[in-house]
Amino acid sequence: MIGDCEFWDGLEWIWNFQWRRELFQWELELVHQLHERLRPVKLLDGKDDNMVWKFDSKGVFSTKSVVQVLQSETLSDEITSYSFTSSVWRGVVPPRIELFGWFVLIGRVNTKERLSRLGIIRFSDNLCVLCKKEIESVEHLFLLCELTWQV
């Protein structure tokens, strides 16, 4: 809850995030960005916290609402201009598959190559889990791996 991540210092709201582990260097930059985004947020003292997903009329989170937001606001013309993507984004597959397909298209799937770049795994451990011949990137895993093609 938001109330667990802050304290009031007079009239000023001070964010006080507690992490379960020491953060990686790249995560510290994300925390800094989070603090910058939270700076203009003004909260009311004495109000109870409640969770609301602003992209749904009832305030409830769903994968479908995320997909709708991505379709309406974030998807670039470059991605949706490909003929195969137009059918993916029209509800032909379940929303979670649409979301996963979008992550594949923009390279946000947690492949070994991405995890090693983020410092989560060692660079030496980034070979494809299937063929063990190439670096496990989005392109390799979903397009170029010989074992993927057999599946």
UniProtKB/TrEMBL annotation:
Pfam families for the chain: zf-RVT
Reverse transcriptase zinc-binding domain sequence ranges: 61-150
Protein's name in the database: Uncharacterized protein LOC107464718
Organism from which the protein derives: Arachis duranensis (Wild peanut)
The encoding gene: LOC107464718
